[in-house]
Amino acid sequence: MTYIIDHFHRVVRFQFQEDVLAFVAGEYSIKPTKTAPCLVYATFNNKIMLYYNIRLPRLQSVSLRESMLGDDEVRDELRRRGILDKPLEQKKLYHRLIYHTPDALISPSR
C-alpha cells in the first residue's frame, strides 16, 4: 500500500498487489525527450512495475527549499552563511547535508 500525502494532509492511497522490496516516485523518461510522473515498484518476485502518467491534481507539493524557509532557525542559519537570498547556494547546501559527510554541516557555503 502506498500513501501519498500533501502538506494539507490530503491522502491518496494506491493499492499494490505484491510485497514491495523497493519503491521510488518521480518524473522519469518513458519516451525520448518526454517525462511523466511515475511510481516504480520492485517486488520480492523479481519484477519491476512502472506506473506512469500518475496525475493527482488535488494534491499540492512544496519544495524542500520552500519548506525550510518556513523555519526561523533555518532562515537565521542561511542569513549567517550569507545565502538567504541565493536559492542556488541553498540547493547546494541541502544537497551536501543530505548526500555527503558530516563535514557538510560545518563548512559554510561560499
Q: What level of helicity do the residues show? A: 25-40%
Mean pLDDT: 82
**Global shape:** elongated
Taking pLDDT < 50 over at least 5 consecutive residues as the criterion, the unreliable ranges are: none
The helix count comes to 3
How many β strands by DSSP? 5
End-to-end C-alpha gap: 43 Å
Q: What does this protein structure show overall?
A:
The protein has helices spanning 64-69, 72-80, 87-99, and strands at residues 2-5, 11-14, 20-31, 34-43, 48-52. The protein is an alpha+beta fold. The protein is elongated. The N and C termini lie far apart (43 Å). The relative contact order is 0.12. The model has no long low-confidence stretch (mean pLDDT 82).
Compose a concise summary of this entry.
Helices cover 25% and strands 32% of the residues. It contains three helices and five strands; from the N terminus they run E-E-E-E-E-H-H-H.
